[in-house]
Write a structure and sequence with these properties.
Layout: H1 8-22, E1 30-32, E2 37-39, H2 42-55, E3 58-67, E4 70-79, E5 84-87
Antiparallel strand pairs: 1-2, 3-4, 4-5
């Protein structure tokens, strides 16, 4: 369900709220033996968020780049009305070989 408004940012925010309300609880499905804790892996995160985002006119896009030998990830969430928000790049998550 997409909520229309004259301001694309307001439509984006309304869609984000609706998507968040539709999301179930994120399941921690992986274990980190080093820190002895559990976490939700990327597949679990995407399984939880993808359909509620799509149902509300939102899409997640990610791009990967290499900066000074480090792999960087940028995330953009775009609404059908045209507003988008960018997050990242994430801090160094690995070394490019």
């Amino acid at each position: 369900m997409t909520t229309k408004s004259t301001d694309p940012r307001i439509s984006y925010l309304k869609a984000m709220v609706a998507a968040r309300l539709a999301m179930g609880k994120l399941v921690k499905n992986a274990k980190n033996p080093h820190f002895k804790n559990t976490y939700a892996d990327l597949a679990a995160v995407m399984d939880t968020i993808t359909q509620p985002l799509l149902d509300n006119g939102l899409i997640v896009e990610q791009s990967i780049s290499v900066l000074d030998g480090s792999v960087m990830v940028d995330t953009i969430i775009t609404h059908v009305d045209g507003h988008q928000e960018a997050f990242g790049p994430l801090p160094k998550i690995g070394r490019a070989h």
